[in-house]
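Quick log. Single chain, no ligands specified.
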Amino acid sequence: MRLLLRFILFLTILLIGLAALGAYWTFYKPLPDYTGSFTMEQLQEPVDVHWDPFGVPYIYAQNEEDLYFTAGYIHAQERLWQMTLSQMAAEGRFSEFLGEDLLSVDRYQRTIGIWQTAKKIESEAPDSLIRFLEIYSAGVNQYVEENSRNLSVEFSLLDVQPIPWTPTHSIAMSRLMAWDQNVHWWSETIYGHLAETLSPPDLRELIPSYDDRFPTTLNESQSGTIASALQSFMEQELEIRNLLEKSGNNFGSNAWAVSGNKTASGQPFLSGDPHMGLSIPGFWFEMHYSSPSMTITGATIPGAPFIVLGNNENIAWTITNMMADDTDFFIEQADPDNSSRYVADSLSNEVDYRPFTYQDEIIKVKDSDDHLMRVRHTQHGPIISDIYPNEQLMDDKLISFQWMGHQVSQELWAIYRMNKAQTMQQFREAVRQFQSPAMNFIYADNQNNIALFSGAGLPVRDYNPIAFRYGWDPSYNWQGLIPFDELPHLVNPPEEFVAHANNKMHTDNYPHYLSTFWEPPSRIMRINQYLSTSDSLTVEDMQLMQYDAFSEHAREMTELILPVLRSGDEDGQFENVLSYLQNWDYEYVPNSTAASIFDTFFINLSHNILVDDIGEELYQSLIRLEHLPVMIVSRMLRDNSSFFNDADITSSSSRNDIIRMSMSQTIDQLTERFGPELFEWRWENLLSLSLQPPLLAEASGDPDTPGSFTMIVDNLFTKGPYAVRGHGMSLNKAQYSWLDPFNVTMGPSIRRIIDFSQPGRSYSVLPTGQSGNPLSSHYGDQTELWLDGTYRYIYNDSTFFDQTSFRTTTYLPN
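-> predicted structure:
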């Protein structure tokens, strides 16, 4: 018996040891050594990398080649899995590594053509750029070669091997970002669907049009079939975004630059916080570069070597989404007698037929046969209706789409030139080369210049810009690009500040069409209020602004509904709610009950107003872009719209009836969820943020996934849930989807403040951390700072060595 017990004890110890050893090799071995010396064959001279307490690398190299080689190595060391997912997305190779279930994703990605476009851009790129990208790629691949048995745990969990990195992948990263930021076409798809049901007057009431010179009535000949095909296209896009934890709309941002004439120090400020989908690891990776030809600090995108948001001793910049319309859908006419041709021009004396061009693709599928697909192209772009064919309904009509991101332009070279710029003119000339995605660059420098420059390739076009266009009518074709010098720019204005929050920037006499769908003005109004009321602004003011939770939208709407609730409260059902709303400061802070009441009410109100006229299916489509119902219903409340006529109430129901009914529903819903005590309805109990890993989070939610996998993802990779301050229309954005309220999907992907009176350091914070390894101390180590609205220093010069602790890694040439 004693022998048996000893044997059982021995087996138990052995199993525990093996488990511990397996955990070590799986989880801990991939963690980097931040204090060693390592030999790198491709280095020309020694490189020192100093790591600050938050895992930000300060790279000191003696030439640019060694600098970018080391940057590639470090990106792979900290974010290789994230980079690998980007490779799969760019090339359309998910099913090759993950199986047949993702074949539809690959078909979609290859039809969009990110990889094909990247190869075209590479073929025309400057030789110097290609050289830097090759060196960067060598650094990535060097890390993989040295650590092929010590890769991060995601590779083991999903049985995936890294894909060799190439310059094409870095170029494709810029086009993936362009596609992520390109959501104007979602609105066009939604309105195409709405046009099937609504009369022209009703449809126009649902379009937040700002310029009557560009009419927004849709083509009468548009068929429901075409709109339905585009709905399928958008559904696939949403599936991919959910897969990669990009379920936020991926447009947003606040940015402002303040002249020294309005600051207490007399030196300019620059503040920026690009809004993006929130996942872990985050989008940005911060670095400091120092070489004889360049010293710069800022945020990079893992997969590309250059600083995208940066500052050096002379200049600083950040970015916002222009909200520009750079995509059009064309209804194409196939030749009924020859399936290899389409009609390029049917209005001339003789019909102009042109042959389709073809892009043949072989998609490898894990544990299955290869899949062959052919993408047809017209002069406008790829045929997207081929992905969802319905020949009986489509007849001989096809849908192509034309996107500025398919045109060759050199964004990485533009960013490299920004990294090297020392003056405003040099920076402006670098922006001139930036075309996709359409972005605003907000700028400040140590000569007290402030500016906003638009970097965008946007087409000149006639006819309704949000309608489907006729591919056989040449007058619908794009007619060149808006010249760079005619894009919106603002340099040293008399207000002494420039700002953008995805709002309309130009006046009504601006000659070009840029967009139809802007963000609600709540955030830009708040920025203007802050910056226009003081001439002694401080860094603390900049921090308060970025953390500000006030909503101008909530203030305006609450003031409209309060009289209605007061006048219709004979039985006192609104008494407690009124008490909270009347005393609300319109701040979305964790302890606010009024915030929960208002947001739940506004969603109910929007549903009650719109569903009766457009139906549940179209309503669910509309609210995929929350800013659309916000702008639509806000205007309807102000103008007493004809849509206030709900057949489910009474035939004579009014605006006031629907407001009261929506508030009654709100009270019932919050009571059912949190109980009758209004104190329990606090915003912190309603709104939450969970930071989840791309792909793994989606896989763990599958009912067929093993429980052990789900447990690892939920307990090791996922952070949260956290209570969050802010709202979709406050400066501190905490946006949630109306399809899944109140789970935050989008917010500040980084907060940066540059104070030119402190040239040695600036302020920054990430929502997660630098590392993508869940056992790293830098995996989520900044989240609490970000939630609390506090910052850490990031250094711009040798001040670093005097003011913070650091660890040093030395890389030596062989």
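The CA atoms of residues 704 and 710 lie 10 Å apart.
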